[in-house]
């Protein structure tokens, strides 16, 4: 490389460092050689260098959002099998994978017996949302209520609810597995009400809505909660065999 070429390379490296664009510093020389060999225009070379930086930043942002969501595992729609759910609305699930429901502040409710893949689908949709640059947070219903109860005891409940509203999507897993006491039921209602037309939630439950009064301990509170949850919602029943039970049978 000539002295002029070294000076230019040094200037690009310096500028990339100042702009905090390390991928440009790492790729400009290699892409420059490729551009000369293949006869790229200046615009094509610039687009290639900037494209590498943007792709890297996008991938890093997605990884950070997935990590910040605290998913218990990474599950994807591509890995989900509908073999045990022949009546599942695949077209609706495919549409939800576009994450337009998050942009529209709509909700998703997945109802079905244990083992039908509700949590898998909820996580997979959450990952799609993170890939689309939406902030996401995941926890079980009990985990969310513990968090809100702690905030309430500190006198910070309203502040915590406002903070949670910074997430475009909250995933509330396993509603119905544990019965709420009256204080917990009130907190759950406040969580759902705080999201009403301001942000999306995905809720999974092993119980039909007709039995939510059992979980919340009060039919009136349950009705008010359901009313706000389903007003702008996609309710998906998942009726079928447990995939864990099916897998166990196949091993015998």
TrEMBL record:
Q: Does the keyword ATP-binding apply?
A: yes
Which terms are listed as keywords in the entry? Answer: ATP-binding, Nucleotide-binding
| Ranges where the AAA+ ATPase domain occurs | 104-237
This protein's source sits in the domain of life called Bacteria
Residue ranges the record marks as coiled coil: none
Q: Which PANTHER family match?
A: ATP-BINDING PROTEIN RV3427C IN INSERTION SEQUENCE-RELATED, CHROMOSOMAL REPLICATION INITIATOR PROTEIN DNAA
Q: What is this protein called?
A: Transposase
**Species assigned in the record:** Cellulomonas uda
Its organism's taxonomic lineage begins at: Bacteria, Bacillati, Actinomycetota, Actinomycetes, Micrococcales
């Amino acid at each position: 490389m000539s002295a002029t070429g070294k000076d230019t390379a040094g200037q690009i490296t310096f500028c990339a460092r100042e702009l905090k664009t390390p991928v440009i510093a790492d790729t400009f020389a290699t892409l420059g050689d490729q551009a000369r060999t293949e006869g790229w225009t200046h615009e094509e070379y610039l687009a290639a260098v900037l494209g590498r930086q943007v792709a890297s930043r996008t991938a890093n942002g997605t990884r950070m959002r997935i990590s910040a969501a605290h998913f218990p595992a990474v599950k994807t729609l591509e890995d989900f099998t509908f073999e045990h759910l022949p009546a599942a609305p695949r077209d609706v699930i495919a549409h939800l994978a576009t994450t337009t429901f998050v942009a529209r502040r709509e909700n998703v409710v997945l109802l079905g017996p244990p083992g039908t893949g509700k949590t898998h689908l909820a996580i997979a949709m959450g990952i799609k949302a993170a890939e689309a640059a939406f902030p996401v947070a995941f926890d079980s219903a009990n985990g969310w209520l513990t968090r809100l109860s702690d905030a309430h005891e500190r006198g910070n409940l309203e502040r915590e609810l406002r903070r949670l509203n910074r997430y475009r999507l909250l995933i509330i897993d396993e509603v119905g597995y544990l019965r709420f006491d009256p204080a917990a039921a009130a907190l759950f209602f406040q969580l759902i009400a705080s999201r009403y037309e301001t942000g999306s939630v995905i809720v999974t439950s092993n119980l039909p809505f007709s039995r939510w009064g059992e979980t919340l301990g009060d039919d009136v509170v349950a009705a008010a909660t359901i009313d706000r949850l389903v007003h702008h919602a996609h309710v998906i029943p998942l009726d079928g065999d447990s995939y864990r039970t099916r897998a166990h049978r196949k091993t015998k």
